[in-house]
Amino acid sequence: MKLKQELEARWFLHQYTHEELFDIYEKWGEKLYWWIDPSADSFQLGNFISLLNALNVMKRWNKLYLIVWWATGMIGNPTWKDAERNFLTAEQVEENARKIEAQIHVILKNVSDKIGVKLEVEVVNNLKFFKNLNVLDFMREVGKYMTVNWMMNKDIVKKRITDPDKSISYAEFSYMLIMGYDFYKLYTENGVRLEVWWSDEWDGILSGVELTGKKTWQTVYGMTNKLITDSTWRKFWKSEWNAIWLDPTKNSPYFVYQYLLNCSDEDVEKLLKLLTFMDLDEIEEITKKHLAEPELRYWQKQLANYTTEIIFWKKASNQAEMISDMLFWNKDKLEILKTLTKDDLEALAKETGSTNFTSWLIILDALINSWLASSRWDGRKLIEWGWIYLNETKVTDWFAEITDGDFINSAIILRKWKKNFKLVLR
């Protein structure tokens, strides 16, 4: 499948500057860039979709320049939000950039191992383009070539200027100049000819194409992917209220896995094309298998397993699947418990909650310690109603003691009702 055809089939392609770019990047050995703004110390699943757009170009043996926007992050871009972002300190930007770069290196290695193609990447801190450039030189190098008329005509600026209740600072207004200079420097110093990002940065991409063309009389290219919406027309993972972070300390691999597992049937086929490198024929076979028995959620399981694996690696994906099986599927939980490693038990305990074993621990105290009951009276009522299980056996004795013999692989499963699980660990 040709590059343009594949990007369209996978729901990526939205805007592009020149038709010829697809023929150029069909061949190996070209260079492109994708950037990340270190406004936070992790990037999100929404950014990940845009990165995958770049990786689908990159897997045809093209080299990626990953630009960490150290300098640009100090200014803040004129987003579609009504107000400007607060400035970060240099130390905050540096720390955020370091963490994001480490995350992306993990993802690139995981994708390389998954698809069997070595993905060549070079990280560039764009501070190096600006740290020795004074304001007068910047005006001569960049400002002279970009007209205010051109910048004012861009939607992202126009929205903030024409509305009397909104405004834009000169810093944010100059953001397009800084972004354009990035592209110019990457082209003149490294031969990079393509920028790839979300469609909401189209104006910034065009500034790089415009500036580079005026200063070098050469053509460079831009391409964006669509803003992805679900079946209810909400943006996927692109806002603070529904951010899915790719840092396991912010939300666990299980959280990402479970989020994808719960995607609706209306969304999952599109997400399989966007979030995985599966052949389209393979996705079609998965679709057929799912539609034959939709209650098994085969579609969603394939999506969740694959995506969690390339973000966090296979061990994390396996753990997430195991936790999901323990909590939500009619699997033999005791047999699963026997196979778990220490790391698996710690991951399960983190997601479900746990309490530690002490001598003379009775079931009522274990329920309170693990927050399954609020008091002994509450615990007694739960046992009377037949809602408490120890290792999947119904508890009938209020004062039953938990002993060493109850442990399976250093853990005990306490369950309230159908799906409220806790572990007792020793």
Blueprint (SSEs and pairs):
Layout: H1 3-9, E1 13-16, H2 20-26, E2 31-36, H3 45-58, E3 63-68, H4 70-73, H5 90-115, E4 121-125, H6 127-130, H7 135-141, H8 148-152, H9 155-162, H10 170-173, H11 175-190, E5 194-198, H12 202-216, E6 221-225, H13 253-261, H14 265-275, H15 280-292, H16 298-312, H17 314-328, H18 333-339, H19 342-352, E7 354-356, H20 363-369, H21 376-384, E8 388-390, E9 393-394, E10 411-416, E11 420-425
Parallel strand pairs: 2-3, 2-5, 3-4, 5-6, 7-11
Antiparallel strand pairs: 1-6, 8-9, 8-10, 10-11
What does this structure look like?
By secondary structure, the protein is of the alpha/beta class. The chain has three domains: about 5-225, HUPs (Rossmann fold); about 255-330, Tyrosyl-Transfer RNA Synthetase (Orthogonal Bundle); about 350-425, Roll (Structural Genomics Hypothetical 15.5 Kd Protein In mrcA-pckA Intergenic Region, Chain A). About 50% of the residues lie in helices and about 10% in strands. It is built from 21 helices and eleven strands. The protein has helices at about 5-10, 20-25, 45-60, 70-75, 90-115, 125-130, 135-140, 150, 155-160, 170-175, 175-190, 200-215, 255-260, 265-275, 280-290, 300-310, 315-330, 335-340, 340-350, 365-370, 375-385; strands at about 15, 30-35, 65-70, 120-125, 195-200, 220-225, 355, 390, 395, 410-415, 420-425. The strands form two sheets. Strands 1-6-5-2-3-4 form a six-stranded mixed beta sheet, with helices on both faces. A hairpin with a 2-residue loop joins strand 8 (about 390) and strand 9. Helix 5 crosses helix 16 and helix 13 packs across helix 17. The longest helix has 26 residues, at about 90-115. It is elongated. The termini are far apart. The mean pLDDT is about 90.
